[in-house]
Amino acid sequence: MSFRPKRPLRPITRISIFGLGYVGLCTAVCFAHKGFSVIGVDVDLRRIKAINEGKAPIYEPSLDELLRRSVGLKMLWCTDDYEYALRTSDVSFITVGTPSQRNGALTLKYAKAAAKNIGKSLRTNRSYHLVVIKSTVLPGTTENVIKPLIEEFSGKKCGSTYDVCFNPEFLRQGSAIEDVLNPDRIIIGEFTKKSGDFLECLYRECYGPRLPPVIRTRPSTAELIKCANNAFLAMKISFANTIANICERIADVDVVAVTKAIGLDARIGSLFLDAGLGYGGSCFPKDVRGLIYISEKLRYSPILLRAVEKVNSLQPHRIVEMARTLLGSLQGKRVAILGLAFKPNTDDVRDSASIRVAKEFLDKKAKVIVYDPMATKNARKLLENKVKYASSAIECIDGVDCCVIATEWPEFRALRRKDFLCCMRTPTLIDARRIYDPDEFGGKLKFWATGLAKGA
Ligand code: UGA
Questions:
Q1: Which of 157, 88, 94 minimizes the C-alpha distance to 127?
Q2: Would the CB of 374 count as within 6 Å of ligand 1?
Q3: What confidence tens digit (pLDDT) does each residue in 233-275 have?
């Protein structure tokens, strides 16, 4: 169902955003950039101080510049005073983290805390207020957890002086600003028509004639859309990795040619078909696990999703196996890992496949040296002093027996065959992200890549 009101119901300009992580901060900065007055709320005082000084606490392309400008123009500022933030805004977005638990359920403690605080503040608030959940939650959460908490703490029913909507976010880390400024669709999960109209108006005000298609639906459907969207993309990646594993066993076959060709079929599409180390980050693994968890709770056995997860969990292991095939025992061998972030253009190492590769090489008693242009600081917290840290790609591969390309940072693409031949002790290169042309990387350099028949 898609509905477009003919004229704005009222001008909306004041937005509060609860939780200033990747999603919250990028959303805040983009709303401010679009001319809204934005107040950010977080419990981390150091984070608040940094943002108010115009310094981004995370790395994201263009974020620094937009943040500095928004803070300078006083379009964005942050506080830990949720009550003040709520009172001085018309709409509040909840963008706190919902990390995965061991059993696949999502941690709701931050979302619940935000809901309670918002509920308390709504108790005395007179004007209409819209609360929008943007954090990823499993189907039924807005209706059965968040809404009842806000009702309990405000002492008022949803649909009276306030409403609650679920509005998922589809931004990708590494291109978050670009994605928020140019969304391909907006999904609004609403309990009441008034609240959906209100939120659609806000987005109309934000994007003007470039407003993308707006899908209006129920909150639980919107919650499922978010998880299903990510699970489908994860499935494409696991499919590509399955084909890659088959390719590695057939002479003269390359997965890159296969996925390129099948991607041209409009029914398949070329995006998210890159075979490699598998998906990581704070979203795909969490959403696939979450969907498995909820399916099982509903007494449905999600065999496809379990297979997606299983294929993904084996990909890092496959790379270490490749090294074993090329080098024999890994004990005492020096291994360089280029790239630690779960993907390029981010400093995030959450659920990064590179970290799993590093740990598995350590388990095999290899000596590991790592390099990442942005994520070393975060990786140190996970790998501690068990590995050595290099300050450049060339330093990282100096004197090693094997190098694994684990994240496709642009600067690694610039490395040439001669760099590996000159620097490494026994030049053996495993391209787990398919950034090099196999035709250029043969000869004296032992080269193998995901989805490439061995010996190519
Ligand atoms: C993902 C979705 O793409 C966003 O739309 C969504 O908003 C976000 O999750 C979220 O739920 O908040 P993100 O996790 O930032 O975004 O990163 P992606 O670009 O989707 O990549 C995820 C992982 O898949 C990375 O580890 C990447 O290396 C891997 N990948 C991606 C592949 O292995 N092959 C591909 O072809 C594409």
A1: 88
A2: no
A3: 999 999 999 999 999 999 999 999 999 999 999 999 999 999 9
